[in-house]
Amino acid sequence: EIKECDWSSDVCSSDLRYKKASSYLRKEFKRLNLDLLLPEELLSNTITALYLPKNMTYTYLHDSLKERGFIIYAGQGELNKTIFRIANIGELTMDDLEALITNLQEVLSE
């Protein structure tokens, strides 16, 4: 269960913020039909690895999101052509996360 978190204050610990952010993002990733690399029980609260959509390269996804002000990360090693990673650490607000999802959805629809 995720406890309530006041995103506008320091009352919310970073662990709780990261857990809430990752839960929100993963719910939205699922809605966008993006598949997680790892099973639920192995997921981190700070970064999510997702399979690239069919017919989309990492370079295209990265560059399109970067133009919109968002940075994603490539998979490492042999995964660099099949997955991408999105981190949710730092001073991110719910508005930031919602903007990421909006822009990601737009890029995926292009």
What does this protein look like?
The chain is α+β, with helices and mostly antiparallel strands and 110 residues long. Helices cover 40% and strands 11% of the residues. The chain has three helices and three strands; from the N terminus they run αβαββα. Strands 1-3-2 form a three-stranded antiparallel beta sheet, with no helix packed on it. Strand 2 and strand 3 (83-87) form a beta hairpin. The longest helix is centred in the N-terminal third of the chain and has 18 residues, at 14-31. The chain is globular and about 40 Å long. The protein starts with 13 loop residues before the first helix and ends with a helix.
Short précis:
The chain has 110 residues and is an alpha+beta fold. The model has no long low-confidence stretch (mean pLDDT 88). It is globular, with a radius of gyration of 14 Å.
